[in-house]
Amino acid sequence: MSEAQGNTIEHTTAAQAANAMPLVRVHQVVKSYQRGAQRVEVLRGLTLDIQAGEFLALMGPSGSGKSTLLNLIAGIDQPDSGELRVQGQDIGQLSEGDLADWRARNVGFIFQFYNLMPVLNALENVELPLMLTNLSRSERRARAENALALVGLADRMDHYPNELSGGQQQRVAIARALISDPTLIVADEPTGDLDRESAGEILQLMQALNQQLGKTIIMVTHDQRAAEHAQAIMHLEKGVLSSREEVQPRAN
Amino acid sequence: MFFLSLIIRNALRHRLRTALTVLGMVVAVLAFGLLATVVDAWYAGADAASDKRLVTRNATSLVFPLPLTYYPRIRAIDGVQAVSWANWFGGVYKEPKNFFPQFAIEARGYLALYPEFLLSDAEREGFLRDRRGAIVGRKTAELYGLRVGDNITLRGTIYPGNWDFVIRGIYHGARKNTDETQFFFHWDYLNETIKIRIPGRENRIGVYIAEVSDASEIARIARDIDAQFKNASAETLSETEKAFQLGFVAMTEAIVVAIRLVSYLVIFIIMAVMANTMAMTARERTSEYATLRALGFGPAFLHGLIYGESLAIALCGGLLGVVLTFPVAAWVGHILGKFLPVFTVSIETVQMQFIAALLVGFLAAIWPARTAARVNIVNGLRAVA
Amino acid sequence: MTRIPFSYSLRNLWARRLTTLFTAGGMAMVVFVFAAVLMLDQGLRQALVQTGSFDNVVVIRKGSETEVQSSLTRDQASLLAAQPQVATGAGGLRLASPEVLVLITLPKRDSGKVSNITVRGVPPQGIVLRPQVRMTGGRMFAAGSNEVVVGRSIARQFQGSELGSLLNFGGREWRVVGQFDAGGSGFDSEIWGDAEQFAQSFRRNDWSSLILRLTDPHSLPALQKAVEADPRLTVEIKREPQFYSDQSEMMSSFISVLGLSLSIIFSIGAIIGAMITMYAAVAQRVGEIGTLRALGFRRSSVLLAFLVESLLLSVLGGVVGVALASTLQAFTISTMNWQSFSELAFGFHLTAGIVIKSLVFAVVMGLLGGFLPALRASRMQIVEALRES
Questions:
Q1: Less crowded by CB within 10 Å, the N or C end of chain C?
Q2: pLDDT over 80 at A9, yes or no
Q3: What are the domain boundaries of chain B?
Q4: Contact at CB, C5 and A128, closer than 8 angstroms
């Protein structure tokens, strides 16, 4: 796995060097929702670039549009207007089915409530995204075992989600997000449901993914402490970007 | 009323699920009612039987005839008011599948014994006057488009050859359970024709029907008749018309038993569906029940809520099912008319349908109500997430 | 196509065992009724087809439909037996069996209620023509005696059919000397005795029917032609299996019409049950559906996963229903056949075809019940579904 990971990093940097494009380009994106009788505009022409290898935290008050932005980038929602490119591809133009395939190849998800399948054990949960590939059963197994070992759960493979603590479940979710070697990982309040100690471990794990494996991570959080594990923090307010601050690397 | 409106609102929370459950209940109650009506129809002949009529047949079995000479001897038995006779004809109208019962009757006496077959005086006279005349029940007449004055030919199975008749009357039933599918013609015509076609087989009687003056004497009279012919060439067996009809039902009892079993099975099926609905509903509302408990409502209140909802859904479906039973039974009765001449939904059937619905509603709530009343408040509240 | 693992569907059924049990249980009962009806119809066919053999023909009077209603004169019988298409047996005798049939009533052992029983007077040749009849107790009746033998289902159900007991009919007493097994055929519901003795007792000068063995099974048309040309022979000739299956047409169509309409009505209940269960399953797993879709599974994969779940449910119900129905093979239904007016016993007979039909029926119920909920699952908006988790 680590070898495969290494190849990907080279590949990504090479692509970047070739056309100097940001990994994610959000340009003049508008998104509104119908809430009851009124239409609420959540994103109002938001523009943002994310470079490959970045670990970005999105912050903002509730209703600022941070989760909506994340959903759009992750390709589980479509913008009303504007441009949304990932690796140069306009994902706003993809059909429903193509978008699903695109997600399978390019996006790893980490959710607040882990969203593991309760009827599948840890190993099977991690293996799940590989069902979307052509890998053989044994190959899927091997990769899932590797991924679980990577997040420190080699001894919990056959445990079901309800037999794991919150922190452990989130590790399984991280392993699941990693397994298909996605272009970017999106995390929506990944520590929102965890105690401080587990939260710290999860954030360190994410940092490690970013720094050691070169994974691009976009994380929505309302927790300043969590956000400080990222390289940069973007602040959203009322559907537009209000500021970007670089986080100083800490000795940790 | 607060409690009632809570039950109704709960029932309407999952509209689709409630609607489906009600629909299932409707189908089950409807099927249950129809099956009960089929069983009733099986017994219709026995129900319609008069308690003053005796049927005397050959003791060996119905396929053996009795001699015509028995007539005066039965007539002379003390307590017998009138005697007539009939022979099962068993003819085929065009095709074997066009079945309806046909009897050669001693016309004048037979019609007097069966006042429930209503004929206009003109039709009755027309029939009695025409040796080849026949009368037919309303349902059979409608089914085959027979009208007064039509010629009809039956192919004999027991009595060989083709037999030509002229329809002289169409009878109606005096009561709802009167069989309106039968076909009657003159025994004299049968007998005289047989005398020519198969000499030696004339003057044979299928059954004698005797009317007694006092219904309470009927058992004694039956014994007297049979004693009269003890050790004769053809011994007789006399029984009330009801017992005679029930004898037929008993021969096909296995079918009646099967239909009964199946009608209970449909209730079991809907019970499984209903119990499932209630169990799912209760499981989803665990936290609500815990909240209610926390607020101080006792188990009785929760029981009331769950039983109330279950019974409301079951009764709603039951009521619709009962209402639908009538038109559907009319339609089924039309289709099965050939086999089951009388097909009417009885009051007992409707009562049974309601009882079944109530039972299903009640039983389906037992398990969820017990679980809900026992819910641990702390664990239940935790289930909110 | 990429598939959500099968175990996901399977384990979800296990996760809500009680609901699965209720729903599959309802389906099992419907499949049970469906299979039972088919088995009964099959049992009836089996009984009647086995009653006859292909190279035997039954002759009855034209238009009489049944043996009991038929009558053939002795002259007609001799004339028919002499036809060249009729085989010759040991001792140079024609393989022709003129028989006399009457109905008598006997009380049933358990209920005391009477039923019509076919009593068949058989000459020695008649026994030769029915090789499927085996004695299971006692011995065959002696020709020219007042001895009778009873079929298996008569022996089981009717009073006075024990070995050595006396039956009273036709103004005489008859001693039961044997019990026979005719392999589940209609003969199992008959009492057999000597043809001439029966004819005398019932004061019949003529026969009811005539059974003939053909030299060549394919010579039936020739025989029919010869008979039609002879004005003395107003008779009908049918192959034995055909004759007996015509005899039960009404019963057979009654069973299938009633049974199939019941199955259809009941299946509505089971389909609704499956629908309720699957709708609830979808509602409970909105978050999971959102997650699966976010991970890149297509709508069709989600649709399939829920359909598979519903199908598993119905296959479970189907297997249990068929298993329950298979236990019915131990039972026999005994009822009056409307057409012959006499008692006929037949069993529930399970065949591979019925198993397949029943499982297909179950699967169709599962598909019908599961489709709409699965469609709802597949149509969910990802973002909304995730929000609900």
A1: N
A2: no
A3: 2-44+253-382, 60-234
A4: yes
